[in-house]
Design brief:
It is a single chain. It contains 1 helix and no strands. By secondary structure, it is mostly helical. The chain has a domain of 30 residues. The protein is elongated, with a radius of gyration of 23 Å.
């Protein structure tokens, strides 16, 4: 049987899928020392990002002058 590129990719993905399906899976973990809150700000600390009510991070793109 000839082993060409599409078959090699399919075989590799099949091996990965089998390892995930039959593997032990991930173990539940907890944050060490509790959850820490951080602030993402510019170099001056005056413009900080926030979070939308939907949970998405607010990102502002400012051009350098």
């Amino acid at each position: 049987m000839k082993f060409n590129m599409p078959m090699a990719v399919f075989g590799g993905l099949a091996l990965i899928a089998a390892a995930i399906y039959f593997g032990s899976g991930s173990q539940p973990v907890n944050a060490a020392g509790g959850v820490q809150k951080i602030a993402i700000c510019d170099a001056n600390g005056s413009n900080c990002t926030g979070v939308f009510p939907t949970g998405f991070l607010k990102v502002f793109a400012h051009r350098k002058r």
